[in-house]
């Protein structure tokens, strides 16, 4: 269900911008279901770890205040063509996901 | 003889498997612990920043740029892009002062990554969005006011 997509673009600074889109509901836990009147339980991505050639380069901590289907961008400074970049995420209900891509 | 070789081999393989499993499990445990629970629970901006970065001097900085809309029609999706020219940035946090829980998101930057963080956040009402950057033992901040016409924090 949870699809993760990654795009890598070359940046003016010489590095690469890594863009990650996770399909995730990002429920805050405050929203009420209109039909039942009950609160929808919180369900959000907590951590996203970016690795570059196997070494962690950034770790994002997300909260329920991040929008549905979070789109996150970070910058790699020391990246070259052919390097592998991967991302792993974990949510508050223990679900995980991730993807991997190679810099063109 | 053959049996001994086989046993030795399987024993070595077993050790590697155990080591690999331990190696795989450890980072996950570390990650779960590092999610800033106290910052998330904080009900005002100052507490959130304190919980996130500890007691460090906070200074206004020109070295941080924030790209965000002046007016957001839909508070459920407000794109925020923050970047800094500070070369030794260690962490970037995005805090929305008037949200029920001001801390929205933060990123820890390790060597190999630059001072850029972009995301989309929810905003309950018109509020300044402050970007905090931890660099060189100080916290640098810059703010940008986003007007929100329809809030996006549930309800």
SSE layout and pairing:
The complex is a heterodimer of chains A (104) and B (155).
Chain A: E1 4-10, E2 16-22, E3 45-52, E4 55-62, E5 71-76, E6 84-91, E7 96-102
Antiparallel strand pairs in A: 1-2, 2-5, 3-4, 3-6, 6-7
Chain B: H1 2-34, H2 37-41, H3 45-53, E1 58-60, E2 64-67, E3 71-74, E4 78-84, E5 89-96, E6 103-109, E7 113-121, E8 127-135, E9 138-150
Parallel strand pairs in B: 1-9, 3-9
Antiparallel strand pairs in B: 2-4, 4-7, 5-6, 5-8, 8-9
Q: What labels would you give this structure?
A:
heterodimer; A: 104 residues; mainly beta; Immunoglobulin-like; 4-stranded antiparallel beta sheet; 3-stranded antiparallel beta sheet; 0% helix; 49% strand; B: 155 residues; alpha+beta; 6-stranded mixed beta sheet; globular; Ig-like_fold (chain A)
In the CATH hierarchy, what is the class of chain B? Mainly Beta
Total count of strands of chain A: 7
Find the CATH topology of chain A: Immunoglobulin-like
Distance between the termini of chain B: 73 Å
- Structural class of chain B comes to alpha+beta
Largest sheet of chain A: 4 strands, antiparallel
CATH topology of chain B: Immunoglobulin-like
Oligomer: heterodimer
Organism (chain A): marine metagenome
Domain Sulphur oxidation protein SoxZ (chain A): 12-100
Biased composition (Polar residues) (chain A): 85-94
Region (Disordered) (chain A): 85-104
Report on this structure.
The complex is a heterodimer of chains A (104) and B (155). With 104 residues, chain A is mainly beta. Chain A has a single domain (4-32, 40-102), classed as Immunoglobulin-like, CATH 2.60.40.10. Chain A has no helices and seven strands. Chain A has strands at 4-10, 16-22, 45-52, 55-62, 71-76, 84-91, 96-102. The relative contact order of chain A is 0.29. With 155 residues, chain B is of the alpha+beta class. In chain B, the strands form two sheets. In chain B, strands 1, 3, 5, 6, 8 and 9 form a six-stranded mixed sheet that branches. In chain B, strands 2-4-7 form a three-stranded antiparallel sheet, with no helix packed on it. Mean pLDDT of chain B is 78; it is low at 21-33. Chain B: This is Sulfur oxidation protein SoxY. Chain B: InterPro entries: SoxY, SoxY_sf, Sulphur_oxidation_SoxY, TAT_signal.
